[in-house]
Amino acid sequence: MLIDCNAYVGHWPFLQLQYNRCEGLLSKMNSYGVDLSVISNLNGIFYANTQPGNEELHQELKSRKSFQDRFIPFAVINPIYAGWRRDFKTCMQQWGMKGVRLYPKYHDYTITDANCVELVKMARDANVPVCFNMRMVDSRARSWMDIDYVTGTKKPEWNIKNILPIVELVPDAKYIVLNYANPVALSDKEKQLIQNAHLLIDTSGRGLTHMGEAINSFGVQKFAFGTHAPILDYLTGQLRIESLRPSEATENDKEKIRSGNIKKMLAV
């Protein structure tokens, strides 16, 4: 079984995307043998109020049973926008969404902002994971209209250390780290924090070029297949799993990355 834990529908203002509606994404899933995809709406990153983006996704999924059978919706929530607590409850309790994606850099708050911490605790209490992206697009080729997050500015691209403060504050929440693009040296304490957390890293980011080394550092239970589609290609995340040598991962290990780890987190 293959479950993509990192996919999207919707538009990116600075890049023309293909197969960025449920129908197109489903055709790609069928082409590459993907059974289920976790998706959210890219539009919600750029709407001042993220909730209409969540509603767009909900309505699109309702339009066809095959969408409901194959897609697992996550909500985009901005915890510093008025009404976000109501939006969270609507998405989880009324629309049946299964997780939250947060974008502190795009919505301009710190990861330890009191509202962000409260939202992560609400997600924990609802038993749903919270996702953070290392980056959405490569900052070296960003549009001049995109947020200023090139290296050396006030908002440089994240690495996994940037996620650790919230993990430390809410250690019993579930976390998914997406597009792991910037590997960084970690202290033993930081490695231990990651190893102890209920945390997954998806396979889409270029920081996992040497995935065997990452598995050796964190353990096979910390990884899940992801594509970051349609922004990134649909195959690289899968190839990183299939190219693992027998000395790096057994077939059972690979199956955990393909679907087992994310199934356990989402209880699907």
From TrEMBL:
Keywords: Hydrolase. InterPro entries: Metal_Hydrolase. GO terms for molecular function: hydrolase activity. This is Amidohydrolase.
